[in-house]
UniProtKB/TrEMBL annotation:
Protein name: PHOP2 phosphatase
Binding site for Mg(2+): D8, D10, D179
Protein family (similarity comment): Belongs to the HAD-like hydrolase superfamily. PHOSPHO family.
Active site: D8, D10
Sorted UniProt keywords: Hydrolase, Magnesium, Metal-binding
Database matches in SUPFAM superfamilies: HAD-like
Domain of life where this protein originates: Eukaryota
Pfam families (alphabetical): Put_Phosphatase
An annotated Gene Ontology molecular function: metal ion binding
Cofactor: Mg(2+)
Amino acid sequence: MKFLLVFDFDHTIIDENSDTWIVKCAPEKNLPNGLRNSYQPGHWTEYMGRVFVYLGDNGIKEDEMKRTMTTIPFTAGMVDLLGFIGENKELFDCIIVSDSNTVFIDWILKAADFHKVFDEVFTNPAAFSSTGYLTVQNFHAHHCAKCPKNLCKRKVLKEFLDKQLERGVSYTQIVYIGDGGNDLCPVMFLKKDDIAMPRQGYTLEKKISQLAQDLSPVECSVLVWSSGIDIISYLKLLMKE
């Protein structure tokens, strides 16, 4: 009996968007209008690349970025939840699938000592160049029309499950915990024994509700959460079964 917990990162594990939080490092904590207005839908990673160039051009170094990023608050109850999962790792495999980047997630998890809770993190690869600029790349290429160009979370989840099956690991249930529009694609991949846990009041919950109203509901069960404590309660039920 093993369960797979799949987490989004921004507005799920942390209570903010890591990509917009980094703007606190910019001069006057603001981006020039031209840069701010250069975002094109589906091309967020390229936009963040330009933001990182701007920060680098303004002399913002790695240690200042790291200090800023590690002040992001965790979502309510999330510290308790990650502690609980860490104590019960024999039952739970745990992955992150996020549109943030490897540098930000690594900094935040390590600063709070939660990196050991997660077996794998799937996110856009980032690194500092020899000149000290943060660079970010698309996670992969895919053919899904519903997802942003750099990341289809369904594809990531499917490939992870296939790889685990090759290793002889299959899961009693997948629990998907997220908040955003880009979490809908992987949620629609879940089967009837699985469970989607959308954050209350966020886009994913609204999109799942809309599908139910359109009489094409998702196949899995749905349980809304507002605090990590709600998720702990559900995991405790699973452990009793």
